[in-house]
Write a structure and sequence with these properties.
This protein is of the alpha+beta class. It contains 15 helices and 15 strands. Bound molecules: iron/sulfur cluster.
Length: 420
Amino acid sequence: MAALKGVWGKIARVNLSTGEVTVIEPPEEVYRKYLGGEALGLYYLFKEGIVDPSVDPLGPQNMIQFLVGPVTGAAPNARSVIVTKSAYNFLCVSTSGGRAAAELKFAGWDGIQVVGKAEKPVYIAVIDDKIEIRDASHVWGKNTEEAETILQKEVLSPLEQRESILRSADMPEKWAALHPAEKKGIGAKRLAAVWVIGPGGEKQVWYANVVTEGARAHGRYGAGAICGSKNLKAIVIRGTKGHPLADKARFLELTRTIQSSEKGDYFWRSYGTAGIGWMEANMTGGFPIRNWQWESWADPSTVLTLNGPFMDVASFVRKQACPGCALHCLYPTQITSAAPLMNGALTDMPDWEAMGMVGGNLGFLEMPGTTPDDPYTGTHWDRAEALAKNQFVTRLHDTYGLDYIEGGALLALLMELRQR
Ligand code: SF4
């Protein structure tokens, strides 16, 4: 392809039935007309006739595509998109934050298309131009967190495998004792990024997600089920090629303007949707409570349990961002609870969807024996336990690789059926 900048001009196509890996080179006019990963993915889905209702979404003919756009990986944009036919037999276009998008870009690919079905569980390892289909039987059945931790150490670039460039003699004595220079670079350098499914995807649950970094998800539409139907546990990527931007200096100048405007948004940058969403939703009657039997609490103090500053006090919160993003919307959190099962578990601070669908919707907020029409009578510790339940159910969905919007709706329905 001509020297079109921002894209690499190639998409990897992995056929899990035959084990073949081929390279697709979309023409320049396709890149220009279908700008970005989402449009490019839809172009191929229509071109190959996969949108036809007769194509079984959970059959080998379906194609799942992991794509990035021209500026992915260059601050402040870092999202990837999955385009496939969803488990529900309509289009799935699902985006996610996380490092994997940038890593794919840095590996020199604009996307990966996966077709066919492997005979046994596999994962796809991408190290720059090299793509391999590898056995995944050792991680099949493991949750997303466990599998990601194992797999990211198995896909190392030459950078991670070479001896350290430092010699012990160059280092202070104490430091050299702690980090011997002879040690291979693993741990000292960047590990691979991983898109992975959990037991939910393996069992082809229709609302299974593809997860990365424990709590970021390509959610809704069941992209995880499509991976599961292909026996594909994960895609693990390590890229070292950088980014094919046309004018890096100009681009960075533009992104600095965006970042400086983002930096003024205190509540968003401090707590994400927990900084604002909880209050607005209650005021406007948009909070799901007990399977939408109520839409707000009469006593507005009830919902203080789910505000960002309270979460900060009740459970340790830190901030994490995709490469180059000044908004850092992921807030890893450690749960505090009197229940040993939940206490100390790591999760992320629930964002707006989780606060609603696996928080208020499951009846965690109001005190036993009261309804959302009553005044709130709980203490600080009651609030902390309610928050812990919200955080823990969020964690369960993330580790099983399930969508908590759909999962919360289903659980709330079951609870109301039992109630009635
Ligand atoms: S950290 Fe959050 S807001 Fe920033 S790019 Fe990633 S997903 Fe988007």
